[in-house]
Amino acid sequence: MRWNAVLRVGAALAGLAMAVAGCGQQQPPGTDGSTPPVAQGAHFEPGTTMAKIANAHAIRIGTKFDQPLFGQQALGGKLTGFDTEIGRTIAGALGISPDQVQWVEAPSAQREELIKQGKVDLVVATYTINDKRRQQVSFAGPYYIAGQSLMVSSDNNTITGPDSLRPTKARVCSVQGSTPAENIRKYIDPAQLTVFDVYSKCADALRTGQVDVVTTDNVVLLGFVANSNGGFKLVGDTFTREPYGIGIHKGDVAFCTFINNALTQAAKSGVYANAWKKTAGKVTTQMPELPALDSCS
Amino acid sequence: MDIILDNIGLYRDGLLKTLQICLYAGIGSLVLGTVIATFRVSPFPPLRATGTAWVTVFRNCPLAVVLFFCAFGLPELGIHGAYFWFGVSGLVLYTSAFVCEAVRSGINAVPLGQAEAARAVGLTYAQSLREIVLPQALRSAVPPLGSVMIAMVKNSAIVGAFGVGGELFSVQARLTSAQGLALIPVLLGVAAGYLIITIPAGVALGALERRLAVVR
Fold first, then answer.
1. Whole-model pTM?
2. Residues from chain A contacting residue B179 (CB–CB below 8 Å)
3. Cβ <8 Å between B161 and A204
């Protein structure tokens, strides 16, 4: 009898919670500035990618589904993250509301192929712009400059940046054979470096106090900070440069220019800052500004 | 070939690190394994049980699991240390079980009359083991012990994955993944590095075996 009562109360509470959550979702988008605005009655020159997308009223955006804070899919299927917000912003500029966007999972190794085969209209997926990739796709942006950073325990105040690693004899952890591991060798003695096969082992070693610092791209580190219950923090500025761009079909200059304009507009109106605040900004005080955009070609 | 020659310094450092691991782990496991073997032939039941349990656990657990416990389990229990020593400890624990069995096979090869005679002239159990049985046992255990030691050298490649780094096998990841060099020549260099250790070790063991052979 008693258990039945407990179950009934629990069910009632769950129902209430769902109703409350439902209320939140039904709020019209764009009213509180937290969701990107949707352009009304936008008109584009026929034949352009923009016109094609706007007329079809559908856009397919490739993004990561497993990168915390940038593009992560919750159990219910809802995507959250900074990349996701950037994608929604661009969709909005084309007159497509956030819930009309079709998200396509774009793991690192498949991004070029998805664009080349036309399976997506654009890719926003922690996608570093480099010359090798430029041979296959074009990039709008960059919309964010990621870079290698240092993660330490929240109570560590002695490590302030890569130059403080040698004097403090800090034990540094990274992944065997990764670019960050090679980069950090410049700042430390070989005996200071511990390497594992995955970053989660480094985070574990940091938690148990076996190492003092974990280093890789700040985006990956922010994911661990987000899951550490306040146990970890990032210190210092990034000391390498990984410009994240928006991948589009190679040579689509008009679309690239359009995206760049949309990004500039989003930076001006505060949509860009909002997108950061509600995603990666939750676990870091760093507040990026829209970087200088590359010219489209 | 150029890939190996251009990075010969990295290979050399890796070879030295692997040798260092093997030296410590070799000495540790030979000593520990012999001690466990004396437990296993001891007339005192609790010691026998301890020895049997030790061998059962460490011979039947994959090395990766033992190393995982050393590198990630111990810090979890508040025991901190360098990953190098965690790695060496794991290799010692694992290899000691095999050393124990090799030594025990050597002990079983010593004719029973030797131990009986030793006890008959008034030697204690420890004395008879130390002065009579073990010297003969270790001689006949040289061939299996050699195999165990060579297996240990190869197993040391796994230690690199548990935070040690810099040993011979990890050279592969630094050259292929980080520097983008071709996999096959890099791996051939790694293989050559291990052969540089294991082949001379095999030859030396053969010579040792001939010198120490018990003439009956």
1. 0.72
2. 182
3. no
